[in-house]
Amino acid sequence: MEKTLVILKPSCVQKALIGEVISRFEKKGLQLIGMKMMQLDDDILNVHYAHLKDEPFFDCLKQSMKATPVVVQCWQGYDAALVVRKMIGVTNGREAEAGTVRGDYSLSSQQNIVHASDSTASAEEELKRFFKKEEIFDYNQTNAPFLYSKEELL
Ligand code: IDP
Ligand code: MG
């Protein structure tokens, strides 16, 4: 099973959508194996958004991510990174499909409710950035035989 990182951004916290977004991932069948509230700072954001450091909106993005604490989560499931990215929709909330988190709850290319790792490789790297090893839990998902086929569970 694959793990992926989700961050519920200040736009999610302030719109009181924490429960709603968690509920979507739970209902899909993904397993929550780590979760905590964190105040982000420049040190972690400079690394996390290094790919955007030359963008004109970089400082504004960092400000938006520091505006309130965020909720960081580790979700586990078959192809978890791909599944979560599909569920959140494209970056700009105005362009994201209805039915996705951003499509339903965001009107912005920046205040877009959630961050999610964009691949298996980036999920591994990002989870190490936000979680200590002991903050990720390993427990049996008892309904797994009803979420996946026998082959998928091998
Ligand atoms: P992603 O969150 O869909 O993976 P990235 O391109 O990795 O998108 O950008 C990271 C974050 O930077 C976005 O979620 C959004 O908050 C912000 N961002 C991306 N593009 C823009 C933009 O054109 N204007 C303002 N903020 C942006
Ligand atoms: Mg990204």
Structural account:
The chain is an alpha+beta fold and 154 residues long. The chain is built from 9 helices and 4 strands, in the order E-H-H-E-H-H-E-H-H-E-H-H-H. The longest helix has 11 residues, at 18-28.
N-end to C-end Cα span: 10 Å
> Level of helix content?
40-55%
As a percent range, the share of strand residues is 15-25%
Strand arrangement in the largest pleated sheet: 2-3-1-4
Radius of gyration: 15 Å
Regions with little confidence, pLDDT below 50 for 5+ residues: none
Features:
four-stranded antiparallel beta sheet, binds magnesium ion, 154 residues, alpha+beta, globular, binds inosine-5'-diphosphate, 9 helices, Alpha-Beta Plaits, 42% helix
Short description:
This protein is an alpha+beta fold and 154 residues long. The protein has helices at residues 10-14, 18-28, 42-48, 58-66, 80-88, 101-105, 120-130, 144-147, 150-153, and strands at 2-8, 31-38, 70-77, 114-116.
Question: Helices, strands, pairings?
Answer:
Elements: E1 2-8, H1 10-14, H2 18-28, E2 31-38, H3 42-48, H4 58-66, E3 70-77, H5 80-88, H6 101-105, E4 114-116, H7 120-130, H8 144-147, H9 150-153
Antiparallel strand pairs: 1-3, 1-4, 2-3
